[in-house]
Structures are given as C-alpha cells and as structure tokens.
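Before the break, one more example. Copy the sequence into your notebook; we will annotate it together after we see the structure.
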Amino acid sequence: MTNITNPMQIQTEVAKGAWKPNLYLTNMAIASFQSEGDFVADKIFPVVPVALASSYYYKFSKGDLARDDVQRKPVFGRVAPAILGQTDELYNCQVDQVIVGIDQISQLNFERSGVPGMADPRQSKVRAVVEKMKIHLDLNFADKFFKSGVWTNQYSGIGTGTPSGKQFYQFNNANSSPITFFDSLITDMRKNGCRKPNKLALGIDTFNALKNNKDILERIKYHGGSARPSRVTEQVLAELFGLEQVVVMASTYNKAGVGQEPNMEYICDPKGALLVYASNNPAIDEPSAGYTFAWDMLGANQFMAVSQFEGDPGTHSEFIEGLIAYDMKKTGDDLGIYLSDCVGTTTTKDSE
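Here is what the structure looks like once it is written out:
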C-alpha cells in the first residue's frame, strides 16, 4: 500500500476497510480523571495568597477580645487601658513538584497524521499533572485536618450502649438523632469559639449514613412527590443543620506503588466528619479554624503552576512540570470539632 497521510485519503481508506491505522486518531480517551467536585482541599478553608514563602501572622487572644473591659469613668480621671494580647504564628510554604515526560519521536506520528480531532498528548499530560497535584493537596488536607488527634474537640461514635462524655450514637444506629446532636455541637462552638460553625465536611460513609438516617428522613418525607421524590442531598443537610455548606470528601487515590495492582482508597476517612467555622474570604481580622497559605513562587498569580521545558540535547524529549507551594495551618483550634467512627455495623435499637 502506498503511504497515505492526507486526512481525506485516510478517511476513505478506513471507510473501505482497506487500511487499519495503528495511531490514536480521535480525541476519545478512557482516563480515570476524577470529577472536579470530588476534590476538597480548597472547599473548606480559604486560600491566603502570600508574597513571602515564610513569614508570621498575628493571632489575637480570644479571652481578651471577649472580656468586658468597659468600666465607669471616674470623675476627673480615666479607666485603665484594656489588654488586647496577641501572639505570632509562623507559616512556611514548601515547594512540591511533579514531572511527566513526552517522547518527541513518538509524538511525530500524531503530528504528521493530520487527522482532525486527534488527541493532544501535551494537553492530556497537563491535565494529568493537575490531577496529581489535586490528589496531593487532598492527601495533605486529610493529614492536617481530617483525622483523629488534630483537634482538641473530638467525639467518637458508638454502636452499642449509651454515649457518655465525648461520644455519640453512630449515624446508622436507630437511636441516632443527628439534628439534635449537631445542634448541641453548634451551641457549644458558639459559646467557646465565639463563632457559629458554617461548614461540615463528611466522609463518604458518613454522608451515606446520614442520607438514610430515620430522624433525617422523617423531617423531609412530606417534601417530595412521585415526579420529584424527597432526596437527602448536601444542601438538604446544610438546611437541616443550619449550616452554609456541607461537603462530601469523595476524592480517591492509588495507595499501591508503580507496577503493582491498583489499591484505590478514599483520601479522607470515609467514616469521619469535621464541623468548622471557616472564613469564606481570608481577612486579617477574621478568625477561621484553618487557612491554606499559598505562595505564588513564579509570579503567575497562582500557587499551582504548570510549565513545559525541553529535555537534554539528544534525548528528543520534553517535560510537563507542576509546582505548588503552600502551608495548611490550623489557626483556630476551638473552631473545629472532629467526629470519628460516625458509621458502624450496629443498627439495632437499644432496649429501653
């Protein structure tokens, strides 16, 4: 067969069945990219752009701010100045990097075919780099915020017996009353943290248990019909709990090493939950349970940067590079409450 490179000739030959190409001639690809909505690292705590990789931020004393220091003015005198203490906290943005390669020689086949709709390996690898950086950020979010031992205020779910102290009924237990429980948590945070919680992050198993909790289903059962049946969504839970936002932690990653069978896991504990007050927009005088300090290292107005560079001479290669520089900090311990073991296997109602 003669060499055929003209797109019209290729289409004709393929239609006749005379030529079976071994090139990727379409923009259709089977890739396991995750939904943008599954990533959570930037959905709970605000991102604070910073000009320096490492520096200090101020943290005012909650006790001094909440104290009544207003006194009766003495005749011909004045009251003593109120004390407003503050401390310095350090952030330190470390630079993380990921690189993937492109073989320019193999790339020539794609470029010379000239087939419309041909997949662009550069574009797909840029997307892969961004995907890897988002997975990395979610893993760090889980380690910094979404686990036991991070927050002073921590509760654990139980499946049998009666809760005491820092315990609660697991949400798939027939005795569970999540609305009453979250009302109590919200009331406590308003008293001790001086802010009403506004966000709730849920592990995927926790979310599923709340969706099927009898106490919650009872509240919404008359709100649907045959055309639009009642469904417990993130927005419904936010309304029931009196919060601005409920986020489900659904991102996943492969725990296995290169060459091993994939071992997929949820990044954030599926049975966990985190109730917080988090500022929607970073401000110097606005408290928040946490912040992500982000350093714009390349001057491109973003802390997650993607660039391209040539390989060494003679290698006929090029590389896609991803860089991120950030520091995730817990900035208000009394503005976060972590719940562990929110789901169990026991669902039988305890005898009274």
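Residues 21-30, 347-352 have pLDDT under 50 and may be disordered. Residues 121-144 form the longest helix (24 residues). Try to locate both features in your own notes.
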